[in-house]
Design a protein that fits this description.
single chain, 407 residues, alpha/beta, 7-stranded mixed β-sheet, 17 helices, globular
């Protein structure tokens, strides 16, 4: 009924020896207590990860795609396919594990419900979804290994494979995937055609490995600057783009963050700094200047900084700055604009005029199947504008939410 598997002989997947499920299986699967404990761990994993079907192969596939191993780490670090020796070692490990990857789980644990398990909640995993057709078509251990290598080359592993959008975890000093990310689409952002095209062209060049600039999107509040940056994920995720949002306070850690991102040489990252402004005495102000240009350590070629701000130069400016009470007045002005100058592409967003504002409302309502006459749209939209903070995409969105809520 059961078969023992010697995980200690694995070469590049040897971390499986310490896996909470497989380690029990490797000890003595004929022992009823060990078998029961292994089964309990497997069911718990299935419920937390949403695994279904034949559980041991599904669990192993999840481990291969989410946990680091020598092959996946080497491919990320170098941006290259593995050498012939490493490839052969992976094929040998997969051959050793092949019974676990192809036979019913009950063959090892004696519990038939594990052969076709249905979890309480199905969890969609895009990385495994991409890999499953390759795995199901595999006829040999080498086919299975090559499918994994194809996956690592396209998606990487772990958090990087499972998510496109991240935040920086200060405690772990690493990236953490954002589980619930709204995916705005560029086509749904009304107006600002030239601004969107500038943003897309620069990002397309960056993804293609061509020279590309850091980008500053500046202008009136609520005009869709942040949404436009977020929409790049939908446009370029399949080309390997990742978005990493950082806070103003984390800017002091930019060298550390960039060191981590530099190690993923085959990936492209946009560091997203949203709605930011500085005093010229802020330590973060100087940290950004140094990280973009002028520091001892250069910005990695796979990283670009995209920032949004309501301030033209990112720095608070006052009339006092223009007074002639400093011996070298131009030095103060140069310091003020020195940060914005480091962004090679500055995209300006103006407040929408009345027709643009009403067109945004009309588009949002039409997406919900609602059509107002031009007169109804004008009266309702302008009345809302007068009692709120002026014309903007955000004001239009708030009007639409209000309209849908009362009708």
């Amino acid at each position: 009924m059961s078969q023992n598997v010697k995980l200690s002989t694995l070469l590049v997947l040897n971390s499986l020896e310490h896996d909470p499920v497989l380690s029990f299986l490797a000890w003595d699967a004929d022992d009823p207590e060990i078998r029961a404990e292994c089964t309990a761990h497997l069911i718990r994993a299935a419920e937390s990860m949403g695994l279904r079907g034949n559980l041991l192969p599904q669990y192993l596939l999840h481990v291969f795609t989410h946990d680091a191993n020598l092959v996946s780490e080497t491919m990320e670090r170098t941006g290259l396919p593995p050498g012939s020796g490493l490839r052969q070692a992976l094929c040998q490990d997969i051959a050793h594990l092949y019974p676990l990857l192809t036979q019913p789980t009950s063959r090892f644990l004696g519990v038939e419900l594990l052969d076709n398990y249905e979890p309480t909640l199905n969890v969609y995993d895009k990385s495994e979804d991409f890999l499953l057709p390759w795995i199901e078509a595999a006829q040999t251990p080498r086919d299975y290994a090559e499918a994994l290598l194809t996956f690592y080359a396209r998606y990487g592993y772990g958090e990087l494979a499972a998510h496109a959008v991240f935040y920086w975890d200060d405690a772990a000093n690493n990236l953490r995937g954002v589980e619930h990310f709204e995916r705005p689409q560029m086509k749904n952002l009304i107006g600002y055609r030239h601004q969107k095209e500038q943003l897309l062209q620069n990002t397309r060049a960056f993804i293609s490995g061509k020279p590309a600039n850091h980008v500053l999107l500046v202008g009136a509040r609520g005009t869709g600057k942040s949404t436009a940056v977020k929409a790049l994920v939908n446009e370029f995720e399949d080309s390997g783009l990742h978005l990493v949002q950082i806070t103003k306070e984390q800017l002091r850690k930019l060298p550390e963050i960039m060191t981590v991102l530099r190690s993923y040489v085959g990936r492209k990252f946009i560091l997203f700094l949203d709605d930011v402004s500085f005093e010229d005495t802020d330590a973060e102000f100087k940290a950004v200047k140094s990280a973009i240009e002028g520091g001892v350590s250069s910005c990695p070629p796979n990283v670009r900084l995209y920032a949004t701000s309501n301030r033209r130069h990112l720095v608070r400016e006052t009339w006092h700055d223009r007074e002639q009470d400093e011996l070298y007045r131009d030095d103060t002005i140069n310091e003020t604009i020195s940060l914005s100058d480091r962004f090679g592409l500055i995209i300006h967003y103006h407040t929408p005029d009345q027709e643009e504002y009403l067109a945004i409302i009309d588009h949002m309502l039409s997406q919900k199947g609602i059509r107002l006459s031009p007169e109804e749209l004008r009266i309702a939209g302008l009345r809302w504008e007068m009692t709120h903070s002026g014309r903007s995409g955000r004001t239009a969105q708030q009007f639409v939410a209000h309209y849908l809520g009362i009708h």
